[in-house]
Design brief:
The structure is a single chain. The chain is elongated. Helix 2 packs across helix 3. Strands 1-3-2 form a three-stranded antiparallel beta sheet. It is about 45% helix and about 15% strand.
Length: about 110
């Protein structure tokens, strides 16, 4: 295996962040928390390709619209999920159970 082939099998946190569309610090936090395996070389991290693939594998082929990611639509029209969640957060609930019941009652079908 050539040196070029060997360097293609690891990524910097910034390269991983670019693919995931997050900040480099977010990737470093995943590494520090043990959610993403990385090799430390001096004061830098390198993420092996297999570790990155393990991180994203559960999300491969997910239809985000089917699980409520994005704009929700129901018979009354379009709902903005951010405003929906913010409104729920402003409401005071006495317990987690009450919060979840309210969330279920108002969730779009």
């Amino acid at each position: 295996m050539s040196i070029r082939e060997q360097t293609d099998v690891v990524y910097t946190p910034e390269e991983v962040a670019k693919v995931l569309k997050v900040a480099g610090g977010t990737v470093r936090n995943l590494i520090k928390k043990g959610r993403l395996f990385a090799i430390r070389v001096g004061d830098q991290y390198r993420v092996p390709r297999y570790a990155f693939e393990q991180l994203v594998a559960p999300f491969a082929g997910v239809d985000w619209d089917s699980i409520g990611f994005g704009i929700w639509k129901d018979e009354k029209g379009t709902k903005d999920p951010v405003r929906y969640v913010q409104r729920l957060r402003r409401t005071r609930y006495r317990s987690v159970k009450a919060y979840l019941e309210a969330l279920d009652a108002e969730a779009p079908v």
